[in-house]
Amino acid sequence: MSRACHRSGCDTRAVPPGEPNSVIGRAMTLLAAFGAGDTELTLAELTRRTGIPKPTAHRLIAELADWDVVERTGTGIRLGMRLFELGALAPRQRGLRETAAPFLADLFEATHETIHLAVPDGVEVVYVQKIDSRQGPVVPSRVGGRMPAYCTGVGKALLAFAPPGRLADVVDAGLVRRTPRTVVAPGHLARDLARIVERGIAEEHEESAVGIACVAAPVLDADGIAVAAVSITGWAHRLDTTRLAPAVRTAALGITRMLR
């Protein structure tokens, strides 16, 4: 089975390798083929991305449409409202977002920069909340979107306080250079994470996208493991990460206390 083709830089997830051997597995593979930039896909594109035979994909799409998980349009297939509704019911993310909301709003009012809340998922981070700044750069992120952990502020904050073995998994998955400033040497990344543990603050300066910088802090559980991270993102040439570090750390600490 081929991997899903995602065109957006903020969603690096691929369809899991290996032929799915159940109806649910095939249905999930079809849904996972949609990337961040895909408003809709044709049946031919879905079968190309997933390797699922066209007759099987056609039958599964029909069943998913009956449940409003996908919708048929005049030109293709798009994700349905029922899928959005189910995602909004996920208890962990909903509880985190509700707890974090006032802290993120305060952080936005104090800085007027783009604010992110992200959680770890394997070697990547998933954005669960975003408040866009009108004065900042267009940040290639979205709620539900993914980015590699090693080159983002929230990702490095999560990695620095991750369970044992997470860094090794990230390195094994490959450190791909996204910009001239992306850290791709495992030893250099490990030293960066050690400094983040000392400071409680992670910074990113044009490592995930040219012209963008951010400062982030982890939200920790009772064992000191990062369950989420908060960041402030803006133009690299004017975002004063040193000045903003206390604000983002205060917000993360506030969310940490509320979750315990």
Overview of this protein structure:
By secondary structure, the protein is of the alpha+beta class. The chain has 9 helices and 8 strands. Strands 5-4-3-8-7-6 form a 6-stranded antiparallel β-sheet. It has a two-stranded antiparallel sheet with strand order 1-2. A hairpin with a 4-residue loop joins β1 and β2. α1 crosses α3 and α5 runs antiparallel to α9. The longest helix is centred in the middle third of the chain and has 21 residues. The relative contact order is 0.12. The N terminus is likely disordered. It comes from Pseudonocardia abyssalis. InterPro entries: HTH_MetabolicPath_Reg (IPR050707), Tscrpt_reg_IclR_C (IPR014757), Tscrpt_reg_IclR_N (IPR005471). Pfam families: HTH_IclR, IclR_C. Keywords: DNA-binding. This is IclR family transcriptional regulator.
